[in-house]
Amino acid sequence: MLESWTDFYAAVAGASSAMAGLVFVALSINLTRIVSGPGLPARAAETIIVLLAALIAALAGLIPGQSAQTFGLELAAVGLTAWGVPLCFQIAAARAKRYSTRKLFLLRMALHQVATLPILIASALMLNARPDGPYWLAAGIILTLVFGLQNAWVLLVEIER
To answer: Could you tell me the sign of the dihedral formed by the alpha carbons of 90, 92, 97, 98, in that order?
Structure first.
């Protein structure tokens, strides 16, 4: 089941590592503004976490000879981190009233959930050796890359407005 996905995982590993590198460049360009902006350091960390989740999930998928259950455990660790840590950042920012509106908080939280929960679903499916697990993982990886790219845009371009 996993062997047929190696090309996809290899492509994701390359793309996500390139995107993470570009985010580090973006952060260095706007470091003073990001560090001084309310909630922006957490958003930068959140961006790196989700991009690293895509990278680590893809690299785990390239490990030869592992069972679906082992891959499922690896995905659980990646998915829980990518889901939980940014969620804590977002809740803390909401409590500190760092969002301009409640709607913005709910939108950011919803986008994050949509991006990361498929990885946890994939983990559960892999643990049960279900053949649809890799498809859920693919969706989660693609969504985390889109979410990470959207955050990177904010940290590089929107911060200048």
So the answer is: negative
AA identity, residue 78 = V
Both ends of the chain: CA-CA distance in Å? Answer: 47
In degrees and rounded to multiples of 5, residue 114 shows phi and psi of: -60, -35
Q: Is the pLDDT of residue 160 over 80?
A: no
Q: How far apart are CA 100 and CA 139, in angstroms?
A: 30
Q: Could you give the 3-state DSSP secondary structure of residue 129?
A: coil
Give the pLDDT confidence score for residue 18 in this predicted structure: 93
Sorted by where each begins, the domain ranges of the chain are 3-160
| Cα–Cα distance measured from residue 3 to residue 112, given in angstroms and rounded to the nearest whole number | 29
- Looking at this protein, which amino acid is placed at residue 100? S
Distance separating alpha carbons of residues 133 and 118, to the nearest angstrom: 9
